[in-house]
Amino acid sequence: MQQNPHTHAAPGSATPFPGTRRRLAGLTAAVAAVVALATLSSPNAQAADNPYERGPAPTESSIEALRGPYAVADTSVSSLAVTGFGGGTIYYPTSTSDGTFGAVAIAPGFTAYQSSMAWLGPRLASQGFVVFTIDTNTTLDQPDSRGRQLLAALDYLTERSSVRGRIDSSRLGVMGHSMGGGGTLEAAKSRPSLQAAIPLTPWNLDKSWPEVSTPTLIVGADGDTIAPVASHAEPFYSSLPSATDRAYLELNAATHFSPNTSNTTIAKYSVSWLKRFIDNDTRYEQFLCPLPRPSLTIEEYRGNCPHGS
Predict the structure, then answer these.
(1) Is residue 47 part of a domain?
(2) pTM for this one?
(3) Closest CA to 157 of 95, 108, 205, 85
(4) Catalytic site residue from 135, 141, 161, 256
(5) Quick one: pLDDT at residue 33?
(6) Which of 5, 70, 227, 265 has most Cβ atoms within 10 angstroms of its Cβ?
(7) Tell me, what CATH number does 241's domain have?
(8) Active-site residue among 126, 178, 270, 272?
(9) How many domains does the chain contain in total?
């Protein structure tokens, strides 16, 4: 019987057998479905790529607001319950539906208490951070001691505090005012794994910080007579390595004590800095790059756009 030449392909032909043809068709359909799904979900690709992203897309008004999208609770920590620092107050988002949050410890300045930085607690926590405003062992502690105390506070926060389960211990930052700002630099120097540092009108006898690799935003004040920017904030900033993500924000018509009361400019750029570097949230780069221009509240802003942008 003569074989039907159309039943099977000739040897060496590229025409597949019917079973193979069906499998290829199925594979093609699957690939098309994946491509279609990726196309449909592309607006959310950034969130999928960044598991640390928290909260809605930011706007100018959202980062200037007195409160962010998260409801906040707080808990007091007695100095008798801790070692290495003087206790404080923890502010934290009440929601656990978004998973864990990054955390920030904040130190006060010479002769001051945590109350001098209390305004930053709920303001930052409501944007999606656990915030620890601390007291120091004594109000006269020097910057190097304050730096060690900031790190001790972070260790307590992540290892023993009642909110430790809400914190991602790999995403931590430090802030501080005056000698607490000097301590912020000391902490970043000692612990390079920190994700962000924000010294506020900082004071320190050490003027050079080439060892700091933590992304650092230094805030100075044009009217500061206690830690004049020419001998403190500016040389601190200039000494940071150019490879470090760094910025210098000089407040206009401000004093050494401007960080001690609610300040929209400090909050706005602190939120943006912490979000960008603790949460890796590139949605906040728009407020840091291009560099902010002088304004009624900004005397000067220097820095580099976040590396990898």
Answers:
(1) no
(2) 0.85
(3) 85
(4) 256
(5) 44
(6) 227
(7) 3.40.50.1820
(8) 178
(9) 1
